[in-house]
Design brief:
- It is built from nine helices and two strands; from the N terminus they run H-H-H-H-E-H-H-H-E-H-H.
- It is mainly α.
- It has one domain.
Length: 264
Amino acid sequence: MNLAASKKSPGGVAKRFKERILHTYFVRCDMSLILAVVIASGIGASKLMLELGLHSLPVRYPLALLFSFLAFLLLIKVWIWYVFCRNTGGPDLTGVDPGDIQISGGGSGGPNPGTAHFGGGDSGGGGASDSWEDGSQSFVTSSHSSPSSGSGGGGSGFDLDLGDDWAILLLVVALVLAIAGASGYLIYAAPNILPEAAWQATLAAGLARVAKPSDPQGWLKGVLRSCAIPFSVVLVFVVALAWVTHNHCPAAVKLSEALFCADR
């Protein structure tokens, strides 16, 4: 296959489309913003469930993580919609002989109906990261308000006397590291995740026939494959933190209450 033929092949078109996305959008910055909103949504969901009377940590924390995961998928869909709706034109397929690929001309009367334009794809979605509702705040609170933290003149200046609370603190630190690691991985892999998701959505919205029928939710499957391991790791630490905290202090509805449990 010569160079011209390879550029006209579906693989060549996909490669040029993804390169266009990478040159047009700051995909790592976009992923960073998405993850920031995801984390905030998880924390907000946990606080909302607490206000609604759901006090069980082993139930509330995993549900908050599930909500943030759905928020992640929804924000990916919003990003794809943003790419489709920008008035900068679609993927440059001008002059491409699609062979056994037929590009639908159902545009809105653009100057080049034979090309695929960003005209508003319709894909499913839904999103995630973790949330443990002011867990980091409780960690800071515990370090500053511990009665034996040695701000006075006597005693050993670093005797925290936390008893079994060390397990909760270690799990909080591990969870924070897991979130940071998962976020770092997704930001690093964003140049692969986001352009691929946009390409799959383009196939579903703009192509009538490919070598085999295109999956309308192909972008969702690709995103799920990319984020399954990072979110699974975060889920393990969220569940572990919730159960250890609940077993340590069953009456606690917040991490700060568990660290200074009155029922010990």
